[in-house]
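Hello again,

I reread your note about wanting to compare the complex against the isolated chains. To keep things tidy I'm splitting this into two emails, and this first one only covers the full assembly. Below are the input lines as submitted, including protein chains and any nucleic acid or small-molecule components. They are followed by the predicted structure of everything together. The single-chain runs will come separately.
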Amino acid sequence: MNTASFQETLDFAIGRERAAVEFYRELTGKAAFAAQKSALAEFMAMEEGHVAMLTGMKSRGAVNLSPGAAVDLGLARRLAAEEEPTAAMDFQDILVAAIKKEERSGDLYRSLVAAALDPDVKAIFERLEAEESRHKRYFEELYETQVARDN
Amino acid sequence: MEPTLLGRIGYAFLSLFVITNYGLLLIGSMARISAKVQGRVGQPVYQPYIDIIKSSVKRNAISHGIMFYLGPVFRLAGGVGTYMFIPAVFGSVVFRNFSDSGDLLLVMYFIFFGQLGMALGAGEGGHPYSAIGVSRGLAQMTAFEVPFALSVIAVAIQYGTLDINAIVGAQQGGFLNWTLFTNPLAVVAAIIAFLGMSMHNPFSVVIAPQEIPIGPPTEYQANLLGMLQTNRAIFNGAKLVLYMNLFFGGATNILVMVVKTFLIYFINVFVGQAFPRFRTDQSIRFFLGVPTLIGIASVIIAAV
Amino acid sequence: MRRQNEHVIPPETRATPDLSSGKYLVMWQGPQHPGITGNMSLRLVADGDTVVDCETHVGYLHRGFEKLMERRLWMQNFPLVCRIAVPEPDFNEYCYAAALEELAGVTVPEKAVWLRTLSLEMIRLASFLMWIGGQAGAFGHGTIAQWSVTMRDYVLDLFEELSGGRIYHMYIIPGGVRGDVPDGFLDHVLETMQVIKKNLDDIELVMFHNAVFKMRAVGLGYIPPDWVDKYGITGPNARSAGVARDLRKDLGYLAYPQLDFKLITGGRSDAFERAELRLAEMYQSIDLIRQIVARMPKDGPFRERLPNPLHWKIPAGETYVAAECTRGEYGFYVVSDGGDKPRRVAVRGPSYTHAVSVMERLVRGVNIADVAGLMVSLHTYPPEIER
Amino acid sequence: MDIKDFIAPFAVWKRAFEKPFTVKKPIDERPGAPRYRGFHINDADKCVGCGTCEAICMNRAIDLVPVEGRDAKEGDSGLRPRVDYGRCCWCALCVDICPSGSLNMSNEYVWIDSDPDVFRYTPGVEPKPWDGSALGYRRAEGYRLLDGTRVPMPELDHHEAVKSFLELVRGWSREQAEKEADRCVSCGLCIASCPAHMEIPGYIKAVRDGDLETGLRLLYQTNPFPEACGRICTHRCEEACSIGTDGDPVAIRWLKRYIADQVELADYSKALPRKEASSGKRVAIVGAGPGGLSAAYYLALLGHEVTVHEKDEAAGGMLRYGIPEYRLPYPALDKDIGYIESLGVKIERGAPVGEGRSLASLRERFDAVFLSTGLPAAYGLDVPGEKHPRVLDGVAVLAAATRGQVLGLGARVAVVGGGNVAMDAARTALRNGASVDILYRRREEDMPADPDEIREAKAEGARLVEKAIPLEVKDAGGKARFVWNEATMVQKEAGKRPVPEPIPGAIHEEIYDSVISAIGQGPELSYIAEADGVEIRRFKPVVDRDGLATAAGKAPVFAGGDLVNDRKDAISAIADGHRAASAIDRLLSGKGA
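Full-complex prediction:
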């Protein structure tokens, strides 16, 4: 793989994470009370961490991510929330939004893997997809234990 | 060739050594036979060795005065003395001991010597059981002495001598020459007396554990007890050899000696396992009854 | 040898020998003495070898059972009571359990009744076997002692199989028993009874047709019949004096009313006859055990459920429960104040009478050599004197 | 005496020709009988360290000792019995009584050592040659010293029960209660697992002794809701109960109820401690649920002036609005609350915190604030169509039932969820004459509801549909068409619980008059402003061990109950309330936190 395509690929990924940060920042703007802000701030910080991590990898010139995909708890496919969270959003709403967002990222990387011609680029996208599946899994688990306790 | 005095002393020690070991093994094997009757597997035959070694290596912590220490010494002296004046094997140089230096009277004296020493020593211990045991023992001894003495007198009359070697010599040449067959009444009286002498049931009045726990030896422990245990082997051996010589034709070799003494000793065990113990007065009355009459009869027969 | 009808009744009052006269020997028989049937001591004053005075001393085994029981839960006393009479612990277990059941109003299941009877008869046999060894041994006849102790061990083997313990069976628990018989156990019982009976035949031949034993035992320790009530003599000692008294018949506890057996009595009342009578009771025990094995219910519950032993409280009340042990009347007097521990327990063992009052009197005028044989012929277990 | 007496004794020699009775090597040739009471063996994994063996041992030969690598956990003290063979008499009562049956005896009886200390050892922990021995003393079949069977609790017949909101569980008579109390071995494992650490063996003993006033006093030491907890407690104590290791656990909950039921409210003050002198401090409590009122009780007892702010028209929180009447009748709850109020606790009903009554203003007016607002907001189904008018919220249905409103659930009702709320909603619907389906995403054994609740719901006629993943709610002429996907349970990761995986194509649907969603609840936290300085993480105030959320600013703020803890049951809320009350008292009286 040439350096250019490596840089390009990572830049793309970093861009995705930055967009995620923006997503949470936007939600925070809508938040009405402390609890919402605290939860959103936590998730935003997580995404900022991802940005920093990918940036680091870019400068080191190597992707240092596990290729093992996390178990899919299958929540994302069912959850309904298409509508954007409102000022009254509760923890469920925020988590659903987060899961959906990770799901979308995963889907995107999956299509990129399919489209990639360069096997090295393909490998990077595969790893990024796995990484997103782990993020999704994290939120799904939170959803299971904190929200849908009785189901 | 007649050995020198030093040589004889050497032989005497050898003889003593043999009889000690034989006595111990005899006690061990008799214990084993008794166990069999009692339905037990029993102790090892070498158990008496273990007992003596164990006792002898221990230290004696109690003193009751000089006589107390001398008791076992007298007892051992009695045992050794008895044995030393009896020929263990007739005609043997090694096992004739000093039988030519003493006669039947000396041997009989030695038989009592040990008991008396023991009586003095154990009495010194001050324990009532010792005193009772001693008095019981001496009383019974006096009683069985009567038939025993009578039968010895009968033998002496029969053979016209008190020299044991001569008595044995007179019985050589076929078992029909044994006193057993030539003077059966004397033998019967002597054997009954022998039961009393051996302290087996029903005459075990001295050590009678359920009445006066072990009697005189109660007071002795450690090496003193070891000495008594050793003497028991020697003394038993000596008495058996004496009986063999007087009544059962003696022995011309060591094997015959072993067989005969074993059988004589077995009589004790045979009776002992079957009966409980006489009370002392019953024992005395017993010895002064039928056995004495038999003894008198044997003397009369011998004299006539 | 004494003849019959030549009994010298020992004086009722104690002699007052002048011990400083030097005429008498003061001698302690026990507590370390092979001729004493346990941890007890006799202080004998002998004139020659005749006892003129005897003082019994107990206390060498005192563990304060009765007081200990007041500090332990009802159920915790169950492993304790068996220690009061070591050679036949089951009578303690039975009396204690029965007393508690009576106070608490508990009925024991039928199966447990039979198992208890079996257990009591087996230990009766074991205890007699130990005694007969002691009686022979006291006169120096070790062979019999070795045999009978082996036979006793065979009974203990049965107990081991039944209850898991040889000496302290702890089988008769308040409410019933601790378990049903294991597979094949009843066959083992019958086999063992066969072996013991054969051995008893040998003992009968060797010991009871033995000139020396007769010389020692006949006429020794004569108990006149009028002493029985005066001293409270029970068991074979009383029956040998011609007094027909047996709690198995008189009280009819456990399964005894359903068993076929005759009361054995005598009349000569000396050591020899007491021995003969006990031998006869041993045969009787074997017979009873066979009857029990044949007639015991095959199944059914063996224990009534009781409250949690940690909090079990028994309604206030008092009771006395007795059973016929090998030596006579064995009883437990139990008082409850309604709490979870006994208020008072008093144990009545026959040895108190036999080994103290009767023994002290009978031994006057007896040869020192006979003291052990006399004591054994009264069949006493010192631990039960010291509760 | 005849000649036979001289001859017969020689018959002893017959024996010499027979086989000896004894054996040569007794140790090798004579194993103990199968039932032999030899050295102890203990299955250390089965043992729960309850110490009943120690209690029954008349020789005090057993000590419960800590064991390396075995920590205390719920239902296990972490201790194991150590036997001192210098004292043991091998009576085996310890084996007979062992609740779990872990302690037994091998038939090994020979053990020789020159070091006397080795004869005191912990079976099952220190390896011994006889460990795991198949032979040895065991409790005989059909023989137990302890009673493994619970005294049956009289309950309404299910057909009868479903017709009304009458209380289902009728309670015990004195005789029954004392019999049940007798089963307890006072091991105290329950104390550790009770969130409030109630003095359980103590009050069970009080039941046994018939001393109910002492019992009530012991209850109120840690729990001012005995009537309520005696009925609806999640009874973690019973899960820890050592008797439950091999039998039914002691019915601790019903015994608690028995005590509270037997003592009249008028007699409470005789049994319970008096208030301390007034401290002059004022404490505000937000939420009159079990957490808030417990805090109120203990604070009032300590002499503080307590005001409780409750948004609803009646106090009790979820105990009142979340738990149906047939499980917890209102008079019983009123009794608990009534006693708390009798101590001078002021409850302002219908007074929600928020606009006009902000947290900041409470912190101005009071010396301390305790928040226990619980989880009042139901989470949605989160499937397409969840806003359908016939999709109802379980918590709201229960609250409406409490308020006596007409529920109008219709004839066919689906309840989605497997928790206690779902069961309560289902049984409430049943009592309103509906036929009820309970749809749960996993299997019955995975359901978080009490097994009793599930059993009773089913007995009352609810149909349980397992492994049903909700997909969608469609409209069907005003009714709701509920669509679900049948699932199969897949063990995706080792050590985690299996995940329901939809079976492709296995789509089911059913038309219901109402679909009650009871999948979970969340907090209502909008009243906490950022300026209050209460740190919140994932919709939970962050508190320290004592429940302190913030000490910065004006009055310190404490929080507890469902709002904060993970157990989300009444007894945990009560424990939180008690703990916070103690901490507030320490803070206010200057005794240091």
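For quick reference: The radius of gyration of chain A is 16 Å.

B.
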